[in-house]
Amino acid sequence: MGDQLLWVIYPYACIAIFIIGHIFRFKYDQFSWTAKSSEFVEKKSLMWGSILFHLGIIPVIMGHVVGLGIPASWLRAIGVSDHLYHIGAVYIGSIFGIVTLIGMLLLTARRITNENVRKLSSLSDILVNFLLLFIVFIGCYSTIVTNATIPDFDYRNTISEWFRGLLILRPEAGYMEGVPLSFKIHVLTGFLITALWPFTRLVHVWSVPVNYVGRSHILYRKHKQ
Q: Which of 67, 74, 116, 211 is the most exposed place for a label (fewest CB within 10 A)?
């Protein structure tokens, strides 16, 4: 029952909250749909932290999509051997993971140590920072340390199979039984931030200003007294 709760009920509950929460907030609270930038308070740490975080997180997300969403047999069929995949996932993935971690450390330290930034931060802002920092850290730990100490573990035969089962509404909690603890924590906290997403500043991710490219210039005229 515990496995069913953790690996079936909990993920689906987080996904449901994610979807319903976004719909509700977009319909009733669009005014707060913003990143609430604090750039005017402090720029240097924000710039470096943001650059490193985004530079690292995009490849990390792409790696998760490939590792979790594409079966190993499909990759082998197009010429990507297990050894080649392992090099990309562990070594290249570790590099981008560490870059993301450094970025999150800078952003979190800025939010806590800078008094003006801290005053502008809500409880959800601080929670998101620390939760993202922990998720990235435990992800790096799993990739670097756990893979080195438990070399026989292959998440593509366990976590990936379980995750794809969730997507097609045929979840099998048994796939997660032999998964190392660090990977389990990484997965559970990942779903936790998925559930919190609609209620935090993370919603700004979906507000890509694509209309800026073709938008007409804004004209400013000096007001004469």
A: 211
